[in-house]
Amino acid sequence: MIVKIKRIHPHAVVPSKGTPQSAAFDLYIPYYDDAIFIRPGVISSISLGFATEIPAGYYASVHIRSSLGKKGVVLSNSTGIIDSDYRGEWKIMLTSIGSGEQIVMPGERVAQVIFRKVEHFEFEECNDLSYTSRGVGGFGSTGS
């Protein structure tokens, strides 16, 4: 499967896998002139410097790298979804949930992307749903 990629920023880094067995491709901060400061409670929109053409029937699922997550840096929208018909520049929104400012350096791996197949569903209205032993039990209903 091929994902076409177009550099928008001349110093954008093409996503790559850390090892041949890696499930995800690493996403990098382009080689800009300055470091990026991620402040607590402030959402920073960071351009990755490229756009893609994802094959029809697939989408990209963007997640934070664990190395930043352990520092308290998270994706502001938890998981980014990039649809196959989107042709704009990829961006990530980062924030620090810790008490201190975090620094992201040019060329640093900041997120990861997994490509997944889209399954198409339809909704069908009904008056009743099938029975399960859980029923309407919600948060914590199956134990901790």
Describe the structure.
It is globular and about 60 Å long. It has one helix at 66-69, and strands spanning 4-7, 25-28, 36-38, 44-53, 58-64, 73-75, 80-83, 89-96, 102-104, 109-117. The mean pLDDT is 92. The strands form three sheets. Strands 1-4-8-6 form a four-stranded antiparallel sheet, with no helix packed on it. A four-stranded antiparallel sheet has the order 2-10-5-7. It has a single domain, classed as Deoxyuridine triphosphatase (dUTPase) (Deoxyuridine 5'-Triphosphate Nucleotidohydrolase, Chain A, Distorted Sandwich), CATH 2.70.40. The protein contains one helix and ten strands, in the order βββββαβββββ. The chain has 144 residues and is mainly beta.
